[in-house]
Automatic annotation (TrEMBL):
GO molecular function (one): mechanosensitive monoatomic ion channel activity
Lineage, highest ranks first: Bacteria, Pseudomonadati, Pseudomonadota, Gammaproteobacteria, Pseudomonadales
The protein's name: DUF3772 domain-containing protein
Keywords, comma-separated and alphabetical: Cell membrane, Membrane, Signal, Transmembrane, Transmembrane helix
Membrane topology: Multi-pass membrane protein
Compartments reported by the entry: Cell membrane
Membership in a protein family: Belongs to the MscS (TC 1.A.23) family.
Organism: Pseudomonas khorasanensis
SUPFAM superfamilies: Mechanosensitive channel protein MscS (YggB), C-terminal domain, Mechanosensitive channel protein MscS (YggB), transmembrane region, Sm-like ribonucleoproteins
Length: 793
């Protein structure tokens, strides 16, 4: 099997190599000597050929008389723009090289002051002439690209106008015999056009089946048939084997199996189509009519293949345990034959309609073909609805269908039924193009929603697996970033949610900017033209820079966290700074580091700072209306960390709140009270309000003061000595300053004495006062001295 795969790969590689050729190969100058090979140069004839190519596209667009005839020219204009971009990119290095060489030679000196050798003068003139030619060529290419871009806009407007006119065009009803007359008895002009088309097909076949070409043609067609049949099965089985034996068991394996099934079918079909096209065009290009037909036929084939591939991947009737959507087995078996039936029907009927479009047959033939497509698709879909409805009723009767599945399936069933009802009314009323449009949009919606559903499930399961702490990737991320299992789960949920939201947005856009016959490249171009609007283009955000930005963000966060741990655990503890200063420096370093990482991430995205004026304007408006408090607190936090009027560990008192500063954040400060509860105070209050820092400077002392009221008949001197003895014998009371007793007040209620002593820290004042009260009351009781009674109220 490995040899067969290698052989097929080599054959395909050789064929693709034979088909490909550089766009500017005919204009390359000869390489001579030992000098470096010169960069591509476009001759005037090449520019003239590009202009003629663009003029030919304009003629094709102007000659189009229906909506579908503009799909091919639109793709060719996109290809023209890509070719011009490649040519411009090839000339830019040469322009830069010539500019550097001219800069080395410098400007021509004043003949009165200095003279140059003749060879330098000649070299400067030759380089200037070459640079002038390159600049002129780049300007011409830019003008061609601008004209092509304007042509794309014009095509979009023309297609919109033609679509509106076709949808509102009223013809005969499908019940009228005159409606089918052009198909039964076509006009002489239509017969002539069909005869010319058949003759061109015969000429091409005679050319590729000539006596000297039959063997190669037969081998290529046989190889294409083998790849489309046996190759698809081998690719499907190979990818299935890989998913079963290499993808971890679980939801990721199930979604990977479904995705692999769809990809195997799509890739093998693409290879087979390219082989067939090469077999017909290896010696001579197709005539314009057949080339247009082949392009449209390829799009139809891809659409039909997507229908069958996605249906087989999602229904998974052979392996129900691999099925992604919650579809009951009887419903899946009932749906199984219809995707292939619709694909084959569309392939045949749409191909016939494309023949009429490519040959330019009359509008009556085109409308009749659309009527046939609408009727056949409606018949198949109605049969599908009836059969599935019967199965669902049986499941509901036996309670084998869950309410959630019943609700979602009911919504789909209702939408499809209404679409078929409107399509039937349009056919009966004579609006055949509207009925065809509804049928096409229904099929396109199925392709888009099924494809993006598969991608969403794959991305979701991949995120859950990558960030799971049970797998190697999750363990590596956990060790690299130093995060917990909970953080990994949050990262998985966030990344999965953002990815799914982006895919849903792209799916909604694809529903409206695409349709049957839209290629993947054209679809992605339309999506990116909407998502990548003028704002993103000004910011210079390129999809290729997203990976660099993600890596910069992850590496930056890891380095900041590692350096913060090193500062907290190794460097700062070995310095003479107090713990509060260490905490402030660590917090300030983290804030500056994260700001630098954000700037580095934006730079990796390719953001041009000169184009951020609109962001600054938006932020200024936001600050003026609702963010001024946040900005004020942020600036205040920076002031607290730099000037350090307070630091972590200080005992402060502000607005009736007294406690220790636990942490200074960017927006607010955490203060821990004596009961271990936390009060969050905005940083701006610590800057703008009166604040008492009890421990500022590290040498603050606490004051333990007691105020006692005694009766009038006591001996004040005896009481004074008793209080001083109690304070002096307490271990926490400092000798200097010495404790003292003050006669505070004398009234008819008694004598008020205040005793004051100092302790080493304000934090032990409360405990010291409690011990002193116990001791003073004990000594007063032993001496027979009582406190004065409070006056009666």
């Amino acid at each position: 099997m490995r040899r067969l795969f290698k052989s097929l790969f080599l054959v395909v590689l050789l064929l693709l190599t034979a088909c490909s050729s550089p766009l500017w190969a005919t204009d390359l100058p000869a390489q001579g000597g030992t000098s470096a090979p010169p960069l591509p140069v476009i001759a005037p004839s090449g520019l003239q050929a590009l202009q003629q190519r663009l003029d030919g596209l304009k003629q094709q667009i102007s000659a189009a008389n229906n909506y579908n005839q503009l799909e091919g020219p639109q793709d060719r204009v996109q290809a023209f723009i890509l070719d011009v971009d490649r040519l411009s990119a090839a000339l830019l290095p040469q322009q830069a090289q010539l500019a550097v060489q001219l800069g080395v030679l410098g400007a021509a000196p004043d003949t009165e002051l200095a003279a140059e050798q003749d060879d330098i003068v000649a070299q400067r003139a030759a380089l200037a002439e070459q640079k002038s030619k390159v600049d002129g060529t780049l300007k011409s290419l830019a003008a061609l690209k601008q004209n092509a871009a304007e042509l794309i806009t014009q095509i979009a407007g023309i297609r919109r106008t033609l679509l509106e006119s076709e949808l509102t065009l009223s013809t005969r009803s499908v019940l009228s015999p005159h409606f089918w007359a052009p198909l039964v008895n076509p006009s002489q002009d239509d017969r002539h056009r069909l005869r010319l088309f058949v003759e061109q097909v015969r000429d091409v076949w005679a050319r590729v089946w000539a006596p000297g070409e039959r063997f190669y043609t037969a081998m290529l067609m046989l190889l294409a048939l083998l790849i489309w049949t046996f190759g698809r099965r081998l690719a499907d089985r190979g990818l299935t084997w890989f998913c079963i034996h290499r993808v971890p068991e679980g939801r990721l394996r199930r979604s990977a199996l479904a995705f692999a099934s769809a990809i195997a079918t799509l890739i093998t079909t693409a290879i087979a189509l390219h082989l067939l096209f090469y077999a017909c065009t290896r010696n001579e290009a197709l005539p314009p009519v057949l080339e247009t037909f082949s392009e449209e036929f390829e799009k139809v084939v891809y659409a039909c293949v997507l229908i069958t591939a996605l249906s087989r991947a999602l229904l998974s009737t052979e392996h129900p345990s691999w099925r992604l959507p919650a579809i009951a087995d009887p419903v899946a078996l009932a749906l199984k034959p219809y995707p292939r039936l619709i694909s084959c029907t569309l392939l045949v009927l749409v191909t016939l309609v494309q023949v009429s479009n490519a040959t330019g047959m009359s509008s009556q033939i085109v409308i009749a073909g659309r009527g046939v497509i609408s009727l056949v698709v409606m018949a198949i879909v109605v049969t599908l609805l009836l059969r599935v409805g019967k199965v669902r009723k049986a499941l509901l009767a036996s309670n084998d269908l869950s309410p959630a599945n019943n609700t979602f399936a009911g919504v789909i069933y209702t939408v499809v039924s209404l679409s078929m009802f409107v399509s039937a009314i349009a056919l009966l009323a004579g609006y055949v193009s509207l009925a065809r449009f509804i049928s096409y949009e229904l099929v396109w919606a199925y392709i888009v929603l099924s494809g993006f559903y598969l991608l969403i499930q794959l991305v979701k399961d991949a995120c859950e697996h990558a960030f799971s702490p049970k797998h190697a990737s999750g363990k590596a991320l956990k060790q690299l970033l130093g995060v917990s299992d909970r953080r990994l789960d949050q990262m998985s949920t966030l990344l999965s949610g953002v990815s799914r939201a982006g895919l849903l947005l792209m799916a909604l856009i694809a529903l409206f900017v695409g349709g049957i016959g839209t290629t993947l490249g054209q679809l992605m171009t339309n999506i990116m033209s909407i998502l990548g609007g003028a704002g993103l283009r000004k910011l210079n955000i390129v999809p290729g820079h997203l990976l660099n930005a993600l890596l910069a963000l992850m590496i930056g966060i890891y380095l900041i966290r590692a350096l913060s741990r090193w500062l907290d655990n190794e460097f700062l503890p070995k310095t003479d700074m107090d713990p509060g200063m260490c905490a402030s420096l660590s917090t300030l370093f983290s804030n500056i580091g994260y700001a630098f990482v954000i700037l580095l991430t934006l730079s990796s995205l390719g953001v041009q700072w000169t184009n951020l004026a609109w962001i600054v304007s938006a932020l200024s408006v936001g600050i003026g209306f609702g963010l001024q408090e946040i900005v004020k607190n942020f600036v205040s936090g920076l002031i607290l960390l730099t000037e350090r009027p307070v630091k972590v560990g200080d005992l402060i008192s502000i607005s009736g709140v007294e406690g220790d500063i636990r942490r200074i954040n960017v927006r607010a400060t955490e203060i821990q009270l004596s009961d271990r509860s936390i009060v969050i105070v905005p940083n701006s209050q610590l800057i703008s309000q009166n604040l008492r820092n009890v421990t500022l400077g590290g040498s603050a002392q606490g004051v333990a003061s007691l105020e006692l009221v005694f009766a009038l008949d006591i001996d004040p001197e005896e009481v004074k000595q008793l209080l001083l003895d109690a304070y002096q014998e307490n271990e926490t009371i400092l000798d200097k300053p010495a404790p003292f007793v003050r006669f505070s007040k004398l009234s008819q209620d008694g004598i008020t004495l205040t005793v004051t002593g100092y302790v080493s820290s304000p934090r032990i004042v409360g405990l010291t006062k409690s011990d002193l009260l116990f001791e003073v009351l004990k000594r007063l009781g032993a001496a027979g001295i009582v406190l004065a009674k409070a006056p009666a109220a």
